[in-house]
Write a structure and sequence with these properties.
The complex is a heterodimer of chains A (about 375) and B (about 400). Chain A is α/β, with parallel strands linked by helices. Chain A folds into two domains: about 220 residues, FAD/NAD(P)-binding domain (3-Layer(bba) Sandwich); about 90 residues, FAD/NAD(P)-binding domain (3-Layer(bba) Sandwich), CATH 3.50.50. Chain A has twelve helices and 17 strands. In chain A, helix 1 links the parallel strand 1 and strand 2. In chain A, helix 1 packs parallel to helix 12, helix 3 packs antiparallel against helix 4 and helix 7 packs across helix 10. The radius of gyration of chain A is 21 Å and the shape is globular. By secondary structure, chain B is an alpha/beta fold. Chain B has two domains: about 150 residues, no CATH class; about 240 residues, Single-stranded right-handed beta-helix, Pectin lyase-like (Pectate Lyase C-like). Chain B is built from five helices and 31 strands. In chain B, helix 1 packs across helix 4, helix 2 crosses helix 4 and helix 3 runs antiparallel to helix 4. The chains are: A alpha/beta (about 375), B alpha/beta (about 400). Chains A and B meet through helix 8 and helix 12 of A and helix 4 of B.
Chain lengths: ~375, ~400
């Protein structure tokens, strides 16, 4: 029986798996999930919002080390140095297609399918020298349950006109798009391109930034200060960093300006009589929305801070992690350790911390 | 990349390590210290900028920033090299810096992120490797410094008073003359890397002979009464600084004659005073810089760059030469800048029209560039003969 388990077979779990494979064989790792395709959720969501490019840059990939990134492999594929030049200028974004191919290649060569065990894990309980899952006891467990669900504002849940941006949909002649992040911006352009008249409803003006979190929070430079913040301030910081944003640039601005001049795009404070309402409002956030995490917290009385599970800087769960066993989080629920935890780089950060713990454990 | 301060320093030092090793090898091959000095300076400049400037200004450093930052660091480095007189040749120094820059870019963008699992998220910190790199750099530089000190030539003090020559120097040393130290009968330098300081030489066939050796420095020497040349250099690279050569009464000898050193690199004559003799300073088939000297009362040209030489004469004061003041002769390429040539006398006795008191002359397939020279009291200010060319930029206010 493997001693290491990954709960969650999405991209976060996949990245952790690729990292563990540096020292472990597929037979030593169990991956629990409901879909063997780690990019299954991304495929559906990217198709729903007609996303063609990743927001992430060259290092937004699933390999354990930052280099070689996708720009490097793109050079070979495209037979052009342009991707490297773009990457040096922070303007390289892999296409969704390139990224999915990359995931597929890694899946094939890493033995992922050999480690995959279909089945949802409902409960994790600390036990002597490890953790009990439904399928056995594991010394080291990483939870990567993904986003707990799509976030639809309460007043729209029963509205027949409403659809979430990450659900398959077409565009009506008049569309109201709720939200101000990257998904919303993508939907504005999609709906305009489909000939619709678009109303943007948002609580605040969107920030314009290349990534969803300032770059220094991707390294120890920003993280060291973040980790030193008292709980209350850290919660405030996370709320600030969670503000919706999308990248600056003419690619976004020019079509909106043109549509605004034509009277086809406007911002309003509340819903109107549009034929369709698209909720580009992201995901539910907070451990309470995830049954596995909520139960884990309740049963083990884990420390929390509002919506967040309190984690150590290496993304492990304090109190349940010691030299002989590890419980770690990756993906969106790991923001307490890494504000951009729901990115590919964030999953890699958690993976590195998890691997370090395993390597330090003499009886792994 | 968002570097931490420690990450910047560790990345810089680790990336510099292969360059330092290459510089050590280069220094051993060339028998010159400038490669090691330059890399030490690169480390110092880089770390200082990291600590005081880059870390504060750049919370995030995109990859493209390596180019302007590298250019700026090169500028600072070369300014220090020239301000403090480090003897690093320009293009090799730039090439070494370029190699170091390229190595650091490749390592920081690809090598370290590939080799170290958490390089990016650790802000460029390298853990134990970073510490080891720093120690290795310090050890290599300390070792180089120790080697430099150990290899410093011994200083031989020449006591006050007269010493009978000729004095032949057959080993690497610094011959340091005490005040009033005189060698009668000349000095012969017969070994590489000899430095002679503050010694007066009286008499001898040549005052000081330097033949077939490298790295000779003559600093503050005085030469009087030589029968042939004051300072006689053949097949050798020399630096002559702040010398005095008295050739009065010697109609045929040269004050300083540097010949056939084209393969020995650039020689230099700087800050010397030469009186009398046939030619004050002459070069043949050599590369030389002749700077800030005072030459007067010669029986031939005051300064002559001749016989396929490449040389520059700058800021020299030439007075009372016979026939020609400043001469570029015999397929030589010369650059004459900011020299003062006054009162050149016509050599009527020779009957040679090219010696009729010409301030600056180019002759026999030579090319001379003139820039802001002051020519006064010369019967003929400038001249070019036998397929030679003078490119002159005169100043009307002189």
């Amino acid at each position: 029986m493997p001693r290491v388990a990954i709960v969650g077979s999405g991209l976060a779990g996949f990245i952790v798996y690729q990292t563990l494979r540096r020292v472990l064989e597929p037979s030593e790792i169990a991956v629990f999930g409901t879909d063997a395709d780690p990019a299954a959720a991304l495929r559906v969501r990217a198709a729903a919002i007609r996303q063609r490019e990743m927001r992430s840059e060259s290092d937004g990939h699933c390999l354990p080390t930052a280099f070689p990134g996708l720009a490097f492999s793109s050079v070979r594929r495209r037979r052009s140095l342009r991707p490297l030049l773009d990457s040096a200028l922070d303007r390289y974004h892999p296409t969704v297609e390139e990224f999915l191919s990359h995931v597929e290649r890694l899946r094939e060569r890493s033995g992922w399918d050999d480690s995959f065990i279909e089945g949802r894990v409902e409960r994790v309980r600390a036990a002597d020298g490890g953790f009990d899952l439904e399928r056995g006891r594991f010394r080291h467990v990483l939870l990567a349950p993904g986003h707990p669900g799509l976030n639809v504002p309460g007043e729209l849940r029963e509205d027949p006109r409403a659809v979430h941006s990450y659900e398959p949909h077409d565009y009506a002649p008049t569309v109201t798009i709720v939200g101000a992040g990257l998904a919303a911006a993508t939907e504005w352009l999609n709906a305009l391109a489909a000939g619709a008249e678009v109303v943007s409803v948002r609580r605040r003006e969107p920030l314009r930034s290349p990534l969803n979190v300032p770059r220094q929070y991707f390294s120890r430079r920003g993280l060291a200060g973040f980790h030193r913040l008292p709980a209350r301030e850290r919660v405030e910081r996370l709320r600030t960093l969670s503000a919706p944003s999308y990248p600056a640039g003419d690619r976004w601005d020019e079509p909106l300006e043109r549509a605004r001049a034509e009277g086809r795009f406007r911002v309003e404070a509340s819903l109107n009589g549009s034929a369709q309402v698209i909720c580009a409002t992201g995901f539910l956030s907070g451990y309470r929305h995830d049954p596995l995490l909520a139960r884990l917290c309740a049963e083990h009385e884990l420390e929390t801070a509002e919506d967040w599970l309190v984690l150590d800087p290496d993304s492990t769960v304090p109190g349940l992690t010691d030299p002989s066993r590890t419980l770690s989080l990756a993906g969106a629920p790991a923001q307490w350790a890494f504000p951009a935890a729901d990115t590919l780089a964030g999953a890699r950060y958690a993976a590195h911390g998890f691997l370090r713990r395993i390597e330090q454990c003499r009886t792994r | 990349m968002s570097y931490t301060l420690r990450g910047r320093a560790e990345t810089r030092l680790a990336a510099l390590l292969p360059v330092l090793l290459a510089a050590c090898v280069l220094a051993a091959v060339l028998h010159r210290w400038w490669p090691v000095e330059l890399v030490a300076l690169m480390a110092a400049v880089g770390l200082a900028l990291d600590l005081e400037v880059w870390h504060r200004l750049l919370p995030y450093q995109p990859a493209w920033a390596s180019v302007p930052l590298g250019a700026l660091e090169l500028g600072v480095l070369m300014t220090i090299v020239y301000a403090f007189g480090l003897h690093a040749p320009l293009w090799p120094a730039i090439a070494l810096f370029g190699a170091g820059w390229l190595a650091s870019v490749v390592l920081a963008q690809a090598g370290f992120p590939f080799l170290r699992l958490g390089y990016a998220e650790d802000g460029g910190e390298l853990g134990r490797v970073g510490g080891l790199a720093a120690v290795a750099i310090v050890l290599a530089l300390a070792g180089s410094a120790a080697t430099y000190v150990v290899r410093l030539p011994p200083v031989v003090h020449l006591s006050t008073g007269t010493h009978l020559g000729p004095l032949v120097i057959t080993k690497r040393e610094v011959l340091q003359g005490e005040p009033g130290a005189v060698v009668r009968g000349g000095i012969v330098v017969a070994h590489d890397d000899v430095e002679i300081k503050n010694v007066t030489v009286v008499g001898g066939a040549n005052g000081i002979t330097v033949d077939g050796v490298r790295g000779t420095v003559l600093d503050g020497v005085t030469v009087q009464g030589a029968r042939l040349d004051g300072i006689h250099v053949r097949n050798a690279g020399v630096i002559v600084r702040d010398c005095t050569v008295d050739m009065l009464g010697n109609r045929l000898g040269q004050g300083i004659d540097i010949s056939f050193n084209i393969g020995e690199g650039m020689s230099m004559v700087e800050g010397c005073t030469i009186v009398g003799g046939m030619v004050g300073i002459t070069t043949h088939s050599s590369m030389a810089e002749i700077v800030d000297n005072r030459v007067s009362r010669t029986t031939g040209q005051a300064i002559s760059v001749a016989e396929m030489s490449m040389g520059s004469a700058m800021d020299n004061q030439i007075r009372d030469a016979l026939g020609v003041g400043l001469n570029c002769d015999d397929q030589s390429m010369c650059m004459f800048e900011h020299n003062t040539v006054v009162d050149t006398r016509p050599d009527r006795a020779s009957g040679d029209p090219t010696r009729r008191g010409i301030g600056v002359l180019a002759s026999f397939y030579s090319e001379a560039d003139l820039w802001e020279n002051r020519l006064a009291g010369n019967p003929v200010p400038t001249g070019a003969v036998t397929s030679s060319m003078l490119r002159t930029t005169p100043r009307t206010d002189w």
